[in-house]
């Protein structure tokens, strides 16, 4: 059994380490069990065709997008636009911090 802290949470932003989408960013939209999650980015990987991913193949960024988490908690779904917004906001903030 894995440490509960190492399992990504719904709404958490992750970086993909292995596979065709390597070094891309996505958001966890569902935790399937202690080994697998479903991720989507709202652009290339839409919510309707979310990717099942082994958690050892992703790196959790320890940042939870509140708009994504709230949407999933309230309605059980999230829009692709909210995913794109959350990922682009994170990337803009991280680039601004690197530039300082």
The main sheet orders its strands as: 4-3-2-1-5
Low-confidence stretches: none
Using only C-alpha atoms, the radius of gyration works out to: 13 Å
Tally of structural domains? 1
Strand content range: 25-35%
Examine the coordinates and then state which fold CATH places here, giving the name of the CATH topology. SH3 type barrels
Number of helices: 2
Note the overall shape.
globular
CATH architecture: Roll
- Alpha-beta content class: alpha+beta
Order of helices and strands: EEEEEHH
Task: Describe the main β-sheet briefly.
Answer: 5 strands, antiparallel
Number of strands: 5
What value does the average pLDDT take? 92
**Fraction of residues in helix:** 25-40%
**What is the rounded distance between the termini?**
41 Å
CATH class: Mainly Beta
Keywords: Ribonucleoprotein, Ribosomal protein
Protein name: Ribosomal protein L14E/L6E/L27E
Textual characterization of the structure:
This is Ribosomal protein L14E/L6E/L27E. One of its GO terms (cellular component) is ribonucleoprotein complex. Keywords: Ribonucleoprotein, Ribosomal protein. InterPro entries: Rib_uL2_dom2 (IPR014722), Ribosomal_eL14_KOW (IPR041985), Translation_prot_SH3-like_sf (IPR008991). This protein is 30% helix and 28% strand. It has helices spanning 66-75, 80-99; strands spanning 12-16, 25-31, 36-40, 51-54, 58-64. With 100 residues, the protein is an alpha+beta fold. A hairpin with a 4-residue loop joins strand 2 (25-31) and strand 3. The chain has a single domain (4-99), classed as SH3 type barrels (Roll).
